Amino acid sequence: MTKRLVITAVGAALALGGLATFLALQGLDAADKWSSVLSLFFTAAGFVLTLVGLFARGSGQSADHAVTGGSLHQVRNVTGDVVITAGAGTGTAPAVPAPAPADGQGGGGTQSAHGARTAGDLHQIDGVGGSVRVEPPTSSTP
Questions:
Q1: What percent of the chain has pLDDT above 90?
Q2: Global pTM?
């Protein structure tokens, strides 16, 4: 686990423990009233966060620092059909190491392949209004 995740988990556990202690010291009637008021605020906050999640869509696709042994296709917001003919990859990803981001952070967006290394094709497809078909590579040998 990362340090940030551990700190977040410990903080959440302390906050819940503090809330439970507070409510236990209030008595049954007062704790019931407090929990009703807190429930209202948590419900309103959850509703606002849901709306933010629905309408604040990320910047799109990202393939930051991806190293592939084949091809990379990014398709987004196409109103018709999409046909991708997969390439015949080399079978191994190139030995070139992926450079670190200059600001120390990844690209963000709705899809990501941050730090990905593949030995074949990489497809990121989002928002296609028709059908998507990925065809196998065609053989050049008779």
A1: 33
A2: 0.41
